[in-house]
Amino acid sequence: MIVVGITGASGVIYGIRLLEALKELEIESSLVISDAAKIVIESETDYTVEDVINIADTYYDFNDLTASINSGSFKADALAIVPCSMKTLSSIAHGYGANTITRVADVSLKERRPTVIVPRETPLRSAHLQNMLTLSQEGAIILPAMPGFYSTHDSVDDQVNFIVGKILDSLKIENNLFKRWE
C-alpha cells in the first residue's frame, strides 16, 4: 500500500496521475490532500477534489492527526508526496508533524520506509536546497519534477508520465509509463 500526499504546489496532476497509475497496476493507495491542494486541483485540472479522492482506495483528512497512517504500527509500504510544497518540505525536514501529510512523512522516515518527495518550486533558495539535503540525508528520495527530453515527449501528458514513471521506479514498481534510454 502506497500513501500519496498531494500538497498545494503547482503540479497536482503528478499526484493525480500517480494515483491513476497505482490503480492501473492494482496497487492499493491511501490519499491525503492538503487544503491548499484542493484549491490547486480545481484551478489547474479538470478534476474535482471528489474525483481525485475516488481514485484512491482510502482517503484521510488533512487535519486528522489520529489517522491510522500516522502511526508507525500502520503497515504502509511507501510514501510519495507529489507535488511537495516548500512549506511541507520544510515542515518535514524539521520534524514538524502538524498535519496528516507531515506526520505520515515523519513516521515514514523514522520507520525507514521508502519516501519520495517531489518538490515543485523554481528557482530554489538556499533554505529549500538545505531542507532537501536534510531529507536526503535521512533517506528520502528527492525527485524534482524535471522531465527528461531524451524520450521525445509529444505532449504534456507524456512529460507527466515520465515523472510518474520515475516515481514508480524509485518505489521499485515496474511500469511502462515512459520510453527508457537505450
From TrEMBL:
Cross-referenced InterPro entries:
Flavin_trans-like, Flavoprotein, UbiX-like
The residues listed in the UniProt record as binding dimethylallyl phosphate, with positions renumbered to this chain, are 150, 166
Q: Where is the Flavoprotein domain?
A: 2-171
Q: Which residues bind FMN?
A: 8-10, 34, 85-88, 120
- Reaction catalysed by this enzyme: dimethylallyl phosphate + FMNH2 = prenylated FMNH2 + phosphate
For this protein, the record's SUPFAM superfamilies field holds: Homo-oligomeric flavin-containing Cys decarboxylases, HFCD (SSF52507)
Q: List the HAMAP family hit by this protein, alphabetically.
A: ubiX_pad
Q: What is this protein called?
A: Flavin prenyltransferase UbiX
- This protein's species is Methanobrevibacter thaueri
